[in-house]
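User: Let's play a game. I give you a shape written as tokens, and you guess the letters that built it. Ready? Here's round one.
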């Protein structure tokens, strides 16, 4: 590849957005060293997506109305989730159990390793999940067919509402000191053990579908596919349920309520345990 081609690749809006994303996570890593709290990495998860999208739009030609509307949806989701994550972090009494376990495992090497294992990895993952944004904000993106828009908006709306209800219900539940060490099993948590994760996935499939409709690029669906995989198999449900599995009553709850896709519970749940989502 010629030098001019390399310069073109690394000066493209997505490449510059990746650089900005990694820089933001590197700065968060420095802050985490002072407070011994890797949980602050989650504070940029939601914000990073509109930063990428609006930056890529600003670096291109004047945007189409469809692109502005697409980014408005992304920003709406990010504002709600980002506020929720920030409030939850401020109210937490200790570092997230996932990162506490990793800190204990790696000992004195953890500050250095956390840079790569937590902050840089999350930066790259964020950029990859943002695939629908990269395509929707690229020059040449047009208007999606009305039927695609209708389905995409329905998915986005359903996921947004479900995730909002789950986060709100869990936050209210945890604010009550009498619920410490107990599991929320009512409402949407009686249909799915992780309805917030399911809502998040549905929402992103809506954004992916809308981006595909605007561009015809199937790779736009790679973002929600990766996010769904991570939630189900890697960084979402597995570490959280490993943390909860030893709690009294959790096994009965897990036997009655599905982990991800909601469905009516088999029967009333037994004695509640604890939920740290």
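Assistant: Ready! My guess for every position:
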């Amino acid at each position: 590849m010629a030098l001019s081609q390399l310069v073109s690749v690394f000066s493209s809006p997505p490449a510059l957005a990746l650089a900005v994303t990694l820089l933001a996570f590197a700065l968060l890593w420095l802050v985490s060293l002072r407070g011994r709290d890797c949980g602050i990495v989650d504070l940029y998860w939601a914000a990073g997506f509109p930063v990428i999208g609006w930056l890529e739009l600003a670096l291109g030609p004047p945007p189409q109305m469809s692109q502005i509307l697409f980014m408005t949806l992304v920003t709406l989701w990010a504002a709600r989730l980002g506020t929720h994550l920030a409030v939850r972090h401020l109210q937490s009494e200790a570092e997230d159990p996932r990162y506490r376990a990793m800190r204990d495992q790696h000992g004195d090497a953890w500050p250095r390793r956390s840079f790569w294992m937590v902050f840089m990895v999350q930066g790259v993952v964020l950029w990859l999940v943002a695939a629908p944004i990269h395509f929707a904000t690229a020059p040449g993106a047009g208007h999606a067919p009305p039927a695609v828009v209708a389905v995409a908006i329905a998915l986005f709306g359903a996921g947004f509402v479900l995730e909002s209800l789950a986060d709100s219900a869990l936050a209210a539940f945890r604010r009550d000191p009498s619920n410490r060490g107990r599991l929320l099993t009512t409402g949407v948590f009686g249909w799915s053990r992780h309805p917030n994760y399911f809502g998040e996935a549905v929402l992103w499939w809506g954004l992916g579908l809308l981006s595909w409709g605007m561009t015809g690029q199937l790779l736009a669906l790679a973002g929600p596919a990766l996010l769904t995989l991570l939630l189900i198999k890697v960084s979402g449900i597995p570490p959280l349920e490993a943390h909860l599995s030893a709690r009294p009553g959790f096994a009965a709850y897990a036997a009655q309520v599905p982990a991800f896709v909601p469905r009516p519970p088999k029967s009333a749940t037994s004695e509640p345990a604890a939920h740290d989502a």
